[in-house]
Amino acid sequence: MPYTTHRPTARVLDIMQLLSTSKEGCSLTEIATAISVPKSTIVPIIRTLCERRFITQHGSNKYTVGISALIVGSACLQDMDILELFKAQMKRIVNATSEACQLGVLVGGDVLYLAKEESPEPIRLISFVGKRLPAYSTAIGKALLSEYTLQGLQTLYPQGLAPVTERTCTDFNRFYDECQQGKTLGYFTDKEEISPGINCFSVPLAYHGHYIAAMSVSIPSFRLTEEKKEKTIDALKTSKEKLEHTFTELNINDIDFFAKSFQSQPI
């Protein structure tokens, strides 16, 4: 008996693939038009996906990919050798600094956190894998956005840079200059711009001339000293060098999947 595509399943996958490539999300009408299916046909599918948290509906009636999709997708990432390479270096950084280390990639205008190694300190940063934050307010985001032109940044954030805390940079020109300064220094900082009392230092990770991810260390202000800052930056730069050398030496093919799956191309 010849194989035929199961249409209901295909529609679910079409919806998920469509939303995964849409930065702003899609309305019900836009989804129906894009996959050429009547709205009445996909309404039950949309409702079920929402109930199971594979997609999320926002106040603008736009649908975006939900947390359940990330959880399922992360099962694939857990088996990727490349992610294990990252985690090994992240553990080394935590051992050197006693502070939390995170790995993030750029998804649209947000940073998506893919991995985290906890700090042994009793008072620590509360964050989790799968969290998305405005990239311009984070050290990881600044590292990844440093490849963008000023015009590219303005295109990526057409509504402007909304403040997350009172220290968030909301001026495009100043933000662009800060990113360029970070490239010169070799590291990027977030000084209580995403969370009061938390400072972050980050380095980007390059492969084939593009930043595919970035690692950061988060330090509460009351534990941040000049000595700890220098130790943290040194640990990050050392791990960056080791990882980038490994990428080149082993000619890892999986990293292409890693980059194409998550990184937004600079404008």
Topology:
Elements: H1 7-20, H2 28-35, H3 39-51, E1 55-57, E2 63-65, H4 67-78, H5 81-97, E3 100-107, E4 110-117, E5 132-134, H6 139-145, H7 150-156, H8 172-185, E6 188-191, E7 198-207, E8 210-220, H9 226-250, H10 254-262
Antiparallel strand pairs: 1-2, 3-4, 3-8, 4-5, 6-7, 7-8
Helix pairs in contact: 2-3, 5-9
Q: What key attributes describe this structure?
A:
267 residues; alpha+beta; Arc Repressor Mutant, subunit A; Beta-Lactamase; 2 domains; six-stranded antiparallel beta sheet; two-stranded antiparallel sheet; 10 helices
| Global structural class | alpha+beta
Radius of gyration, taken over Cα atoms and rounded to an integer in Å: 20 Å
Termini separation comes to: 49 Å
Number of domains in the coordinates? 2
- Assigned CATH superfamily of the largest domain: GAF domain
Keywords: Coiled coil, DNA-binding, Transcription, Transcription regulation
Domain HTH iclR-type: 6-67
Coiled coil: 226-253
Protein name: IclR family transcriptional regulator
